[in-house]
Amino acid sequence: MGIINYTALSTRDELLGFSCGNSSIDQLVANSFYPNQYRQIMAYKMSIQNIRVGFFSVSVQGISLEDTDTSVAEYYYDNPSFAAVKLEYIAIDKRIQKRGIGTTALEYIVQEARKLYVCWPIRLLILDAVRDKVSWYENRGFEPIDRADMNSASATVPMYLDLMPEDEKTVIIAESEEYYE
Q1: Alpha-carbon separation of residue 36 from 18, 33, 158 (angstroms)
Q2: What are φ and ψ of residue 173, in 5° steps?
Q3: Contacts of 134 (CB under 8 A, 6+ apart)
Q4: Looking at CB atoms within 10 Å, which of 24, 53, 85, 162 has the fewest?
Q5: Contact 29, 36 (CB under 8 A)
Q6: Taking the CA atoms of the chain, what radius of gyration do you get in angstroms?
């Protein structure tokens, strides 16, 4: 596998004929051009040696964790609301899946989201995982926003990755426990 290049979606033609093998994600990809143009989302084409291999899209959203069982929410005493980067979709061409391209792309997305965390009040990376990809995301550090969603009949499971590094979390938790005693 070569180096993956990530370029912002610039024309509708870049989307033509793409399929990741999941019709609902294919529809998200197909419908991402105009929201990208209006800056509701940012959609990116992934290519290796000028060959299109997939797409992903991200947005910025607010999320409340007030009525969830996430470990993040327990340390917020007032309102556990966060700004989050939302991974709208990640889609790899169905003909070349299972070659590490999705994993490499997700690592890139996490790295870029962590850069935002450092400079802006962005705390979480969130997504709605299709059921058959939940364990794939869990193996990469994501957790269900609410464990009850794991047993629901919905097609997706809302998940999150806390962008705060563990060492930073440890210090802040200790300091906040002293402060609130």
Answers
A1: 17, 5, 22
A2: -60, -45
A3: 144, 150, 157, 159
A4: 24
A5: no
A6: 17
Superfamily the domain 4-179 falls into = Gcn5-related N-acetyltransferase (GNAT) (3.40.630.30)
Q: What angle do CA 19, 21, 25 make, to 5 degrees?
A: 75
d(CA 176, CA 181): 8
Predicted confidence at residue 77, as pLDDT, reads: 60
The pair of structure tokens assigned to 99 is 């070659």
Q: How far apart are CA 63 and CA 124, in angstroms?
A: 9
CA–CA distance, 48 with 173 (Å, rounded to integer)? 42
**pLDDT tens-digit series, residues 63-118:** 888 777 777 766 666 667 888 999 999 999 999 999 999 999 999 999 999 999 99
Give the start-to-end residue ranges of the domains of the chain.
Answer: 4-179
For residue 156, what are the β-bridge partners?
130
First to last CA, the chain: 53
At residue 152, the pLDDT reads 78
Angle among Cα 83, 84, 90 to the nearest 5 degrees reads 165
Q: For the whole model, what pTM was predicted? A: 0.89
